[in-house]
Write a structure and sequence with these properties.
Blueprint (H helix, E strand, L loop, with lengths): L1 H7 L17 H11 L4 H14 L4 H13 L3 H13 L5 H7 L7
Helix pairs in contact: 2-3, 2-4, 3-4, 4-5, 4-6, 5-6
Length: 106
């Protein structure tokens, strides 16, 4: 029964248990969504939307949302996501400019 007791107390004693099961960060979710955008757009969109809800300033998440919605022909959703991406911070602002037609081809 020693093994089952070890599994019960995974959290360090000075930290609340909920910190152990937090899951991936917003940035990690957005990066995973970026990786999945072409091969599994539904899952990518789900991850990107979750990341964007948690951190509205994450340009990677908005880029994925804009890309997937654009690929699906959802122009209004794509345009709204591009606007949010351009207003956000992070490495994908330039990519969002390209999606919007305001940047050079990469």
């Amino acid at each position: 029964h020693r093994l089952s007791l070890a599994l019960v107390s995974l959290a360090p004693p000075d930290e609340p248990e909920e910190t152990v099961a937090q899951g991936p960060s917003e940035q990690q979710m957005a990066e995973q969504a970026l990786t999945l955008a072409e091969t599994s757009p539904g899952r990518a969109l789900q991850l990107a939307k979750r990341a964007a809800r948690r951190d509205p300033e994450l340009s990677t998440a908005w880029f994925v949302i804009a890309f997937v919605e654009g690929q699906r022909g959802n122009e209004q959703e794509a345009a709204a996501a591009i606007e949010r991406c351009l207003a956000a911070s992070g490495p994908h602002k330039l990519a969002c400019q390209t999606l919007s037609g305001g940047g050079e081809e990469l």
